[in-house]
TrEMBL record:
HTH bat-type domain boundaries: 155-206
Residue ranges of domain Bacterioopsin transcriptional activator GAF and HTH associated in the record: 24-143
Domain of life: Archaea
A Pfam family matched in the record: BAT
Signal peptide as annotated in the record: none
UniProt KW keywords: Transcription, Transcription regulation
PANTHER family: DIMETHYL SULFOXIDE REDUCTASE TRANSCRIPTIONAL ACTIVATOR
Protein name: Bacterio-opsin activator HTH domain-containing protein
Amino acid sequence: MATVMEFTSPAAEFPLGSVFENLPGVTVELERLIPHQTLIIPYFWVRGVKTDDIEAAFDPHEGVQAIQMVDHIEDQYLMRAEWQQEYFGVLSALAKANVVVLSGIGTKDEWRFEVRGEGQETIAEFREYCQDNDIPIEITAVHAMLPIKGEGYELTESQREALILAYERGYFDTPRKASLESIAAELDITQQSLSSRLRRGHRRLIGATLASSSKPT
């Protein structure tokens, strides 16, 4: 059964860490991670700042070959980077392991990741890789994915918990009866993590219900 692991890693451990020193109020969210021969190519969003030169916010790093802005919308910047695969770090561990990155959100305090493996063995291999290469991670949760009413789609336990609690607290009501801040506090997670869980949970539900029902038969 597919297994999900949530873990944290120090902000300084990630090659993007310098952006938090230069722009401490930003949030970085991993969009895609593409392994390519000797390189790892991540796409990620930098949110929460307006600047004329976002690329200058990233200091040179031995593991980073190139970094550039792909697009931007107001205070949100989509970035593309090129990492050397031989540089040991969280990014190389994610690329080498047979896991799917469900979410990766970084602040000046830490990075929070949620990854999915085909089973517990895959997750164990990822953990061992990090241990063998002295990559600091702190595991906060490990659980199996749970199907919800019907076949063909699944939510993680954390996504299900967040969606149900947000519904019960009136977050989806008009006007809203609860805020992201209050729900995140109840779950003991950051607002960024809650926002990511809700967004990804919505995507799974819509993809498996509305979108799938509209496909031609």
